[in-house]
Design a protein that fits this description.
The protein has 356 residues and is an alpha/beta fold. The chain folds into two domains: 2-225, Alpha-Beta Barrel (TIM Barrel), CATH 3.20.20; 239-348, Lyase, Ornithine Decarboxylase, Chain A, domain 1, CATH 2.40.37. Helices cover 30% and strands 27% of the residues. The longest helix has 23 residues, at 168-190. It starts with a strand and ends in an 8-residue tail after the last strand. The mean pLDDT is 94.
Length: 356
């Protein structure tokens, strides 16, 4: 795995400056990179803290001195809740809740501890994943504030709908719909005298559109640090903004078929590829982005039916921009970081495999 430092730094600075210029806070999601050194860089560039997906990711980040962490997930298992309480002794910690049962479990775990854990209510703004219906949030907030060791922070949504749009105009409309829903929820909660400090919305593809709107106070992009084919496909960036590649070798050729040694264990099986035109790809060749990996097995990536493959030879090295960076990073132990072609450092992916 290879990282172009120049591109990464530009990605981080551009988004940080843009969000700050709109008087909003950025809390980047580190599940994309899982590297404490990069999380610290994001904080140096103005992030208020970080977002993690799992307790184990948060533990790694806290062990490296990061002290403001939102776990953007529901934590309900007792063993994980006990770890959550221990973690709250080392860092300012917040989590999501979206059910009475989840709230009861969280409150029970923390009630006798000398810590306070922040709580965001997750709102379903059309994702059909986690989150409570918007109209139920107001009564739910009343339940949260009854627990002295829980601090009600605000409301959160992922906004997965922002990943699915036909054009920028539709993306802007979806962003407005999501934000309007969150503003309505905030208004309803505050009518009961409960302060909503944060409206937090995640995702990279719609971050620019969300930043332009009144309402969100905290944005949580993740993939923006690297970008990938999916982000390009969603019209958020261009291929020139993709900082992460997987270095592979051409190991076989037959007719219009070319095989590289990067398969599902390198490019991931996590999604069925990204559609570009009529083709579904698991990754594309950097600099020749019309050429994509159409099939993968465990150790092989297959390019086929492409006349332009004739110029490649067995033994040649090629860089592949992955379809989706997040699961790919979790497949590697380290990442080679280069600036202008010279390796500057090798970073350990410290939170690799931390999915508990």
């Amino acid at each position: 795995m290879i990282l172009d430092i120049n591109i990464m730094e530009k990605n981080l600075k551009d988004i940080a400056i843009m969000i700050k210029s709109k008087a909003k806070k950025i809390r980047p999601h580190i599940k994309t990179h899982k590297i404490p050194e990069l999380a610290k860089l994001q904080i140096e560039l103005g992030a208020k803290g970080i977002t993690a997906a799992k307790v184990s990711e948060a533990e790694v980040m806290a062990a490296h001195g990061i002290d403001d962490i939102l776990i953007a997930n529901q934590v309900v298992d007792r063993q994980k809740l006990d770890r959550l309480v221990d973690l709250a002794k080392k860092a300012r910690l917040s989590v999501l809740v979206d059910s009475q049962e989840g709230l009861i479990r969280l409150a029970d775990a923390v009630k006798n501890a000398d810590v306070k854990i922040g709580v965001y209510i997750e709102i379903d703004t059309g994702d059909k994943r986690c989150g409570i219906p918007p109209e139920k949030a107001s009564e739910f907030a009343k339940e949260i504030i009854r627990h002295k060791n829980l601090e009600f922070i605000g409301i959160e949504t992922y906004g997965a709908r922002l990943n699915h749009f036909i054009n920028i105009q539709q993306l802007e409309q979806i962003a407005m719909d999501v934000v309007n829903t969150m503003i309505t929820v905030k208004t309803q909660i505050e009518r009961n005298g409960i302060k909503v400090k944060e409206i937090s919305i995640g995702g990279t593809p719609g971050v620019v559109q969300l930043a332009q709107l009144d309402g969100p106070t905290e944005l949580r992009p993740g993939v923006y640090i690297f970008n990938d084919v999916a982000t390009v496909f969603r019209k958020a960036v261009g291929f020139r903004d993709c900082a992460l590649t997987v270095l592979s070798t051409v190991i076989s050729k037959s007719g219009n078929r070319m095989i590289v040694d990067a398969g599902g264990k390198s490019l991931s099986y996590a999604r069925p590829g990204i559609i570009l035109g009529e083709d579904t790809y698991y990754g594309v060749i950097k600099g020749m982005e019309n050429l994509g990996v159409k099939r993968v097995s465990e150790e092989h990536g297959v390019f086929e039916e492409e006349e332009s493959l004739n110029e490649f030879v067995i033994g040649e090295k090629i860089e592949i921009i992955p379809a989706h960076a997040c699961p790919v990073v979790n497949l590697f132990n380290e990442i080679y970081c280069h600036r202008n072609g010279a390796v500057e450092k090798i970073l350990k992916i410290s939170a690799r495999g931390k999915v508990e």
